[in-house]
From TrEMBL:
One of its GO terms (cellular component) is nucleus. This is SKP1-like protein 1B. Residues 5-64 form the SKP1 component POZ domain. It comes from the Eukaryota. It comes from Cinnamomum micranthum f. kanehirae. Residues 107-154 form the SKP1 component dimerisation domain. Keywords: Nucleus, Ubl conjugation pathway. One of its GO terms (biological process) is ubiquitin-dependent protein catabolic process.
Amino acid sequence: MASTKKITLKSSDGETFDVDQAVALQSQTIKHVIEDVCADNGIPLPNVTGKILAKVIEYCKKHVEMPKDADDRATEDELKAWDTEFVKVDQAVLFYLILAANYLNIKSLLSLTCQTVADMIKGKTPEEIRRTFNIKDEFTPEEEEEVRRENQWAFERNIKNAEEEVEVRRENQWASEWAFAEEEEVLWQWAFE
């Protein structure tokens, strides 16, 4: 590794981690702290527990240590395989990794973890998604019917052309955003119970 300078990171539960500067700089948040403030006494990370910070450091270290040869397809495939294994964690850890990646501004980790959740949702019915994430259905049957009626395009599989789909989505965008916001709020409440 090019950098041998160590940076001390302090988790919300008091754990400290001494990491190579190159690893710490994978986080744009930490990078800005180092640039703007003296980091000699360590960098407190009040929104990240030690357990999650250890996982984040593991991810950043692996990505720093991998050779950056753009022409090496084997290296790229190896890193993708490692990433796939890295996100095979329980849902709570996955959601905390998303929050940590967002807070620490590590775009590649945020993208990886969010894509993992998207893959868990892909192709599932609302009922299956609720079961997967243990989400209570807080809609009354009448409210659910209203959302389905207002967002009929989302429940139809055979829209004849893309232009029609775009127009329907534009007309019902506010309803879609409302329904998504309701589901997202329930999901995040579940993640922190």
